[in-house]
Amino acid sequence: MLLSPVRTSALTAAVVFMAALAGCASKNPLIDQPTAAVPAGTAADTAAASDTSGVQTIKHRRFLGIFSPYRIDIQQGNFVSKEMLAQVKEGMTREQVRFALGSPLITDVFHEDRWDYVFRLQKGNGEVTTSRVSVFFNGNLLARVDGGNLPTENDYLDKISGGAAEAKKSLKNLEMAPTAPAAPMPGKTN
User: Is the full-model pTM beyond 0.90?
Assistant: First the structure.
């Protein structure tokens, strides 16, 4: 049974569309670094081009400006805060660094003296926050740390909980909630 030219072209278009969607799923968010939309020639442009460590936040666009499907928050990797990085000093052993920062996400067989702590938080609204901390050893002792400008633990908690605006909203809802009448004390009658 032969297909008509209209059906053949529709089938070809469907196959091309499915191949394009499959290509989108093949990206590794922990390795592929998204490029931020920063106006060229600004100070932020040069800082974004030169700094590959630290924290980067990118906001994705919605389809046709208003439509977006429901998406859950996805957290991957090791979150390293300013407080955690302050505990790490040159000359510490690998075990001490592992105790302070946790197990590294990436250890390379060919570069045994480097540990990478990669973190990515993709919020449901399309906002993506990434950070990378690299720890370098000389033998068994810590030689240097590349981490950039990391957030504090409180900043991170504000980011995943929605920030101060979300906290105000929940506090307002708590104040508006009706209170239940107190139970009468046993043995007393009114």
Answer: no
